[in-house]
Amino acid sequence: MNTSRLVLPFIAAILCGPALADGDGLDAKAVATAEGLRDTAMRGSQAYAIVESLTTEIGPRMAGTEAYDRATAWAQAKFKSLGYDKIWLQPVTFPVWERRAERGRIVSPFPQHLVLTALGGSESTDGELRAQVVEFDSLESLKAAPDGSLAGKIAFVNLKMRRAKDGSGYGPVSNVRRSGASEAARKGAVALLIRSVGTDSDRLAHTGMMRYEDGVAKIPAAALSVPDAELLANMLKRGKPVTVALDIQAGVTGSKTEYNVIGEITGRGKPDEVVVIGGHLDSWDLGTGAIDDGAGVAITMAAGALIGDLKKAPKRTIRVIAFANEEQGLLGGKAYAEAMKDAMGTHQLAAESDFGAGRIYALHAGVSPESKPVIERIAQVLAPLGITWAEGGGPGPDISPSVPYGLPWAELQQDGSDYFDYHHTANDTLDKIEPAALDQQVAAYAALAYLAAETAVDIAPAAPAAQK
Amino acid sequence: MNTSRLVLPFIAAILCGPALADGDGLDAKAVATAEGLRDTAMRGSQAYAIVESLTTEIGPRMAGTEAYDRATAWAQAKFKSLGYDKIWLQPVTFPVWERRAERGRIVSPFPQHLVLTALGGSESTDGELRAQVVEFDSLESLKAAPDGSLAGKIAFVNLKMRRAKDGSGYGPVSNVRRSGASEAARKGAVALLIRSVGTDSDRLAHTGMMRYEDGVAKIPAAALSVPDAELLANMLKRGKPVTVALDIQAGVTGSKTEYNVIGEITGRGKPDEVVVIGGHLDSWDLGTGAIDDGAGVAITMAAGALIGDLKKAPKRTIRVIAFANEEQGLLGGKAYAEAMKDAMGTHQLAAESDFGAGRIYALHAGVSPESKPVIERIAQVLAPLGITWAEGGGPGPDISPSVPYGLPWAELQQDGSDYFDYHHTANDTLDKIEPAALDQQVAAYAALAYLAAETAVDIAPAAPAAQK
């Protein structure tokens, strides 16, 4: 963002008279146009058709797979058919992780099949691994186990996730998923099993990324479905040794370059300044990636297309990004930040949709105090959608790597009450999406992006950019 | 049932004075004892612990598997530990069907994995079968297809199941499952795919039995999960040929003898006359058989045990039956009917619990008009449980083969609103059961069985026994 950020709102307010007296840099016509976009979207948007197309014609599109390449071509073609006037690719290179096979069963005392899935990044077992299971109720209690106490054992962390509209139950349980394997390996364990990071009670396991710490043995790691975790816990309660057999074939096979797919509606006045909205194009491999994050891609593609359909484009460019490889470490977002770090000053505002397909109920923003009148005006336009402006929140995952470089962000917070019922499972499918809920979100993104692109105010970030 | 059925109520009414004036053959003490059983169960029964034990220590126990033998031993031990004074086995012989492997995918135009499961009884594909899919919206439209029109094709019947408290949506869709393969084969089809018989939208397929008609080619048959059926339908809507690959390895491998496991609380006055309650011990192989029908076994075992705990046993014997192989054609029920057809006159009343774990809301009975005062009295005792006596209903599946031989039956109708969300899927697990709902059912079964066993009235069937 250029250095006039802090000064311009006041100049604009003086120059443009009453309509801008409150410092939002927007005239009545701009506000009316945003309201029109909002109301048009609420009457029916293209978002559901877009996510139907992505999930039907591509389906699962895990980073590193041939399906992601097909998704890339799909996104380019979709941007084109939606009337975006500039479509381009941004390379993202990363190690390719493969899931080849995964099986689990209780061997004794009561033989039973187990439903599980390898965590992203997991290494293989050496053929079938058989070992006794030791249960922990949290990552903390695993960390507290004496060194060597898990030698030759499978550590099983059975921590239940709390359901919450804002997804606040995710943090503690996803930490188990991310760090559990190395913590268990430190105690001598030969594998990690976790209770799925999910709020459902379906016999479908939740995958998701894990990491090995340097210098610690890399042991295979998998998540049991919630009913299977409860089955295993019930069996362990009987006090007899429980032996589980795991056969996981997975691992990193090389590296690949994929692409962030970017579509733009070029601004009429300041085409080099951009408002970024988007979602991530990659998904996990188990479902069809409908809510994570076909919905986000569809909502923002449809919102941008609505703005593109206006007779007069907004001042700044609307840039819709379908990010590559969010799931395995925000790699598309990091590549964007790295490529754009010297041009972050051209970024007016960025917002990502990546929390399912539930209705938006709150607007948050990470902008300077002087930019807040713009957010306030946006909030007024969004209020009829049931959206309230509130402090807090945070940038979307693929936006976050750019924030330290000075990217102002907004968040349109979705109702995620049922998001973790389906997240990272085979159950992430189109039927979980309500078309009208998508329309509400398109309405919000279209109005937000348009007003941010049209305002005379150059929005500044909440905190100064980090040293580069 | 002996020939005194019709006469005895009136004699009893005369002999026993006012308490029996209404013809129910029950005195105030008997009613009070039944109310005590009811209230004791409502304070907490053993049913949940029993189904927890069965699903944890045995889990899936499909007919024909080694796991069913373990379940048999489990049931014998459980009857013993619950204090049943006579435990015996009744042989049931049947062909063994095996599920060895099942895989499906869409090959073109848009390659995707498909979640499916072979229907019980299905034959194998010859390696991987690839064929074009033709969709039908009902069994009727499949039947209406011209002969030969499906030559070399896969028939796909995409009929949605209706959710209903009484399970009335099951009939039409289960007919597709049962008869679809032969109907499709008649038109030349090489395989059948159906939309799962279920009310859920989970990516878990519902298995269940199918039959081949004599003289018609035996083609493999599988059910897609509901989201997969919708995916396939959405793909077909695009008007391009859709090719699916199926690899199903399954079939009948021989025959086996398993056992109905029977536990009895011997009656104090007429030990040779029996009140039968029960559920079926076998399950499908995908889940742990919690709601189908671990719940039924547990409810009736716990109800019988409560009666067994009384200081004074009721007049007649309480016979709790854990039926073998219900799922593949009521084979345990048929074996019982065949073994007992000449002794059906010793059967006072029979009721089976096999509709999940939801609370009971209605009492139905198939008894003679003269026996109805007993049912009316039972209904009065059950009323505080939210149970209403109503016409209609039918005998439970394993009871039904005995009804033509003169078995009087009762039905304690459960709320099955969510039964078909989980029925015959991997999702049939313990977490779907609410312990308090089981207690309500134990209360109802205990009171019903006790009063039927205690009454001076010999309950007669609604219709005369069929010619043997």
UniProtKB/TrEMBL annotation, chains A, B:
It is found in: Endoplasmic reticulum; Golgi apparatus; Lysosome; Secreted. It comes from the Bacteria. Keywords: Aminopeptidase, Carboxypeptidase, Endoplasmic reticulum, Glycoprotein, Golgi apparatus, Hydrolase, Lysosome, Metal-binding, Metalloprotease, Protease, Secreted, Signal, Zinc, Zymogen. Coiled coil: none annotated. Residues 260-444 form the Peptidase M28 domain. GO terms for molecular function: aminopeptidase activity; carboxypeptidase activity; metal ion binding; metallodipeptidase activity. It holds the Pfam family Peptidase_M28. The keyword Transport does not apply. GO terms for cellular component: extracellular region; lysosome. Homodimer. The monomeric form is inactive while the homodimer is active. This is Carboxypeptidase Q. It comes from Arenimonas maotaiensis.
